[in-house]
Write a structure and sequence with these properties.
The complex is a heterodimer of chains A (286) and B (329). By secondary structure, chain A is an all-alpha fold. Helix content of chain A is 71%, strand content 0%. Chain A has 12 helices and no strands. In chain A, helix 1 crosses helix 12, helix 2 crosses helix 12 and helix 5 packs antiparallel against helix 8. With 329 residues, chain B is mainly α. In chain B, strands 1-2 form a two-stranded antiparallel sheet. Classes of the chains: A mainly alpha (286), B mainly alpha (329). Chains A and B meet through helix 5, helix 6, helix 10 and helix 12 of A and helix 1, helix 6, helix 7, helix 10 and helix 11 of B.
Chain lengths: 286, 329
Amino acid sequence: MKLIQKFIKTPEGIVGIIILSILITLALSAPIIAPGDPLRIAGRALAAPFSDPSLPLGTDRLGRDVLSGIIHGARTSLLVGAAAALAAIAIGLMIGLVAGFCGGIVDEVLMRVVDAFQIVPGFLLALAFVSVMGASLPVVVMAIALGAWADPARLTRAQVLSLRERDYVAAARVIGMPPVEIAVKHILPQAVPPVLAVSATIVAAAILTEAALSFLGLGDPNSVTWGSMISEGRNVLRSSPWLSIMPGLALIVTVLGVYLFSEGLTKAMTRPASTDRSAPRDGMTP
Amino acid sequence: MSRALRLIRRRLLSSIPVLLIVVIMTFLLLETAPGDAVDAYLLSIGGGDANIAESLRRAYGLDQSVLARLWLYLTALARFDLGWSVAFERPVLNLITERLPNTLALMGSATALSFVFGSVLGIIAGSKPESIKDRMLSTISLIFYAIPSFWLGLILSLIFAVQLRWVPTSGIETIASGKTGLERLADIVRHLILPVGALALIYTALFLRVMRASMAEAWKLDFVLFARAKGLSRNRILLRHVARNAALPLITMLGLQAATMLGGSVVIESIFAIPGFGRLAQEAVSGRDAPLLMGIILVSAVLVIIVNLLIDLLQTVLDPRVGASEAMQ
């Protein structure tokens, strides 16, 4: 796997993968390292961070353990981010494949629908969707995917349009392979890599959208999210600012990890091994 | 100029079916909501009997079928009538046009500031890709780009409004201050510093990254080699050739970001209590005001179309290759 070798040579890739592994480990082991319901009362209300060894990051207005909330929040954040991105990419791949492969009127109609989804602000759409369907994790995932599938669809379609004209596709047609089989077996696998390259940005956007939705009180009320913790801390922003600051920092580190991972991946995919690209050399001026 | 006119005409024609799709989809989505505006209204006034509910539904046309109401909505739309907001008891269009200027001022100034700073910093970073300066700027911009705007807004208001008391924490102007003219403008600017600052910091990071990336690409192009062969100075190549070519993707980026920015106005206006478009969307959601939410989504789609049209026109002016094929058809 040359790609992995190149990937771990980029500093961005290494830092990104370390951040994401730590977060995923925290999220997976949340029931072990922070057992019990993170929404239960764990101690005295508004305990300052670092004042009580059993509650390292203090407690919020209702006496809930902040550290436990942050660990369990990682779960929601990563789960919703990954699921929404996965759904968006799956829908995008499917619509893009159908539009590009069928062409003609089907393509025209599907692309107008893609246009429609691209000009409506995704966040407004998510807001409307959650308010109609009621806030729960699956609904939030769908709401975010609804505003994010149009880009991968457009990308897939462009890729399929160029793949469709390749010789090997023509050969498959000649030997009488059914169109559906050609599309799924021979075109789809080739159309996936460029979409995967942008998938990290979709995950990052999904994490930020989920945080914004729960900040506005439209997240799942039964699970801890960083967005709702920031919003909750806002009530005591003057006296206990750390309640809003800490979940925000967790959010930034997560999104940064995803971005770094994606940067490393892009570099590994575009840069030939070990040669420095393109930098204009010093002393080129006369 | 006629080329520009043809571009405008083509765009307007092609946007009609897209807007129609937006209207139908949003209408059907909002239609699936359990309960309607009458339920929400009765809840807010403390309930009412079935007769009141029924007469209200008839008054609002909520007793008709979905398709009939969709048709009614579309015919009203053709007369630029966006319907009646049940939560505010006012026409939707009035509400939106009243709130929109605040959001446009907020978003416009944040975009303008970040476009200037972002492109200048992007030129500095991209003047020598992979240099220390570039790496530092790229890293800092990546961090800022990862910050959610609502959190940055909270932190800025905590530092500059709560601790230092330099600027007000919220609102668009001092209520009942009786200020007029320039004094009022200065008051509004003081209120907008923090929200504009929060958005501009994040957008600057984005524009910097786009500018830097497209400059790194532009250095590799043949005309740079040619300019070097001609013996042009490094600064001249940098500004007149590389930066100029790299600016086009930056302008395209503006159009792509228009929808995201409008969506982002919801949280930032909620933090700073700015009575704008985004806050109206939140109020529409909490008031279960389907006609208002519908109008907001439709107007935002129209705004995005207009912004992209303006950007395309700008591109045809800046780069003769752009739009040539489209206008020729």
